[in-house]
């Protein structure tokens, strides 16, 4: 017993000596950063992937507030540069307005309000721009941070933010909704484009701007659009086809790969056109033609190849310039038999 007490006392003394005299003299190793420490500092223009969490940061919200609402001279303060890439969301909304039949009905016969969904709305500029033509517009995004910002914009009409000039040097600005926008026409909600509730719709227009290649399963979204959109309504897809495994597993890519059977390139635009305009997944009752006639799909392509450049500012001398393709599909109306 006495021996055990002596050993215990010696051990305690040794530990105390180590803590007081040895440990303070050991060289200190630099603290390793958290694997997520750079998340708030990573620009949304990074091609590193990162998945949906990349948009749940203050930096992402501020970059998108500038992308959607920034003054032209703040976004691109140079005489040279891609000025045609400014006002991206306004141009997306105009593409919708140009092709939506419901907005061309001036007979006064329709009693239903014109409706649109801005899927992947981010901080809401596209939703507000759509409200110029559509009487009810729903903005949907997977990011809670984006929806919080959009709802504040709707409630207050403006939102202060800051943007990077260089390094840690920042400048403040105020995102503001144009005064002629009727804000109460808009509503925002967090939602998943790959799991749209069956209770939504049908609507006259769905806009998906720079969304498709950021979805984990883009075909689920396209399939839902077959019933989400009214017969005669339109689906407006605007995408740069920037497929990244961090967002979409490769087996879910709609293009950007070599086909296994013949090693020929499969481009996204061709996949989308075939998937929406051919008979696969057809939900519309069409008249029966002669034997051997091909059954048409749920949509017809009414415009494609529309150049839709965009510009996202990272700091005063670094930007992401892209040129998405705009395509417009109209949901077919049922044929009489």
From TrEMBL:
Domain Methyltransferase type span(s) in chain numbering: 118-237
Pfam families membership: Methyltransf_11
Source species, domain of life: Eukaryota
Signal peptide positions (record): none
MF (Gene Ontology): S-adenosylmethionine-dependent methyltransferase activity
Annotated segments matching region Disordered: 33-54
Protein name as it appears in the record: Methyltransferase type 11 domain-containing protein
Species of the source: Polytomella parva
């Amino acid at each position: 017993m006495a021996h055990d007490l002596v050993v215990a006392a010696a051990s305690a003394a040794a530990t105390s000596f180590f803590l007081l005299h040895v440990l303070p003299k050991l060289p200190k190793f630099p603290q390793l950063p958290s694997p997520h420490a750079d998340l708030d500092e990573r620009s949304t223009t990074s091609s590193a992937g990162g998945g949906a969490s990349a948009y749940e940061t203050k930096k992402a919200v501020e970059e998108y507030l500038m992308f959607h609402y920034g003054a032209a001279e703040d976004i691109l303060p140079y005489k040279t540069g891609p000025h045609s890439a400014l006002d991206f969301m306004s141009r997306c909304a105009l593409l919708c307005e140009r092709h939506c039949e419901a907005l061309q009905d001036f007979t006064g016969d329709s009693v239903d309000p014109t409706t649109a969904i801005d899927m992947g709305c981010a901080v809401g500029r596209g939703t507000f721009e759509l409200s110029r033509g559509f009487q009810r517009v729903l903005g949907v995004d997977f990011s809670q941070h984006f929806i919080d910002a959009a709802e504040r914009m709707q409630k207050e009409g403006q939102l202060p933010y800051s943007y990077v000039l260089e390094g840690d040097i920042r400048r403040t600005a105020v995102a503001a909704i144009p005064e002629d926008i009727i804000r109460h026409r808009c509503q925002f909600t967090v939602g998943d484009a790959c799991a749209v509730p069956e209770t939504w719709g049908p609507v006259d227009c769905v806009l998906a701007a720079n969304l498709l290649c950021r979805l984990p399963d883009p075909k689920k979204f396209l399939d839902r659009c077959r019933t989400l959109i009214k017969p005669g309504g339109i689906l407006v897809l605007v995408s740069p086809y920037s497929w990244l495994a961090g967002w979409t597993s490769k087996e879910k890519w709609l293009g950007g790969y070599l086909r296994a059977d013949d090693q020929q390139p499969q481009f996204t635009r061709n996949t989308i056109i075939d998937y929406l305009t051919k008979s696969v997944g057809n939900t519309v009752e069409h008249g029966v033609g002669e034997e051997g006639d091909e059954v048409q799909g749920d949509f017809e392509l009414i415009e494609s190849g529309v150049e839709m450049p965009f510009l996202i500012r990272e700091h005063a001398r670094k930007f992401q310039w892209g040129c998405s393709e705009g395509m417009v599909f109209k949901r077919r109306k049922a044929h009489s038999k």
